[in-house]
Amino acid sequence: MATKVILVSAVLVGLVSLSSCRSLAELSEQKTYSSAPSYGSSPTPMYGTGGGYKPTPTPDYSTTPTPSYGSTPSTPSTPSYGIPEIPKHGFTGSCDYWKSHPDMITAVVGSLGNLGKTFGTACSLIVGKKLENLHDALSNTRTDGVGALLREGAAAYLNSIVNKKFPFTTQQVKDCIVVAITSDGAASAQAGIFKKANEYHY
């Protein structure tokens, strides 16, 4: 009886062991087949940071994009010809400068000026009709004191308008010319003073 029990036990243990081995073998076989690549089916796209197959999106040709070439260039301003720029504040020009720049005289006083209206009737009577405006006064070739006064006085007059720090105000320039023009000696002395102021030496 004991022998039969042992024999049955041995058979049962053998069957259990065989069944366990078979189950392990099948499990291993299934794992091998599941890890093998599957042919005939398309790969599953992988998205995210892990890499893998990433399909390229199909471009949309229904709308044409407008090319952008940066910012639109600004339209350059049209230069104004024939209208000179008034000298900057602090500018002082010599007699020669104003004589060679009649356009600047026009920019400062609006025209070439009128000698009688600028320096008074007495001045125009002494000078005569040959010198009618500021440019004429600057360009005169007289060699006496009156000629020098007209040249340097006209330059001083223009400098007093464009430069508020000029040693003489516009009214002082006009007053000095009216007083000094009556005498050649006084005119020469005043012309020397104006010349120093016009050339930064006063």
From TrEMBL:
Keyword Signal among UniProt keywords: yes
Region feature Disordered, mapped onto this chain: 32-83
Compositionally biased intervals (Low complexity): 59-81
Signal peptide positions (record): 1-21
Keyword Lyase among UniProt keywords: no
Keywords: Signal
Protein name, entry field: Pectinesterase inhibitor domain-containing protein
Source organism of this protein record: Panicum hallii
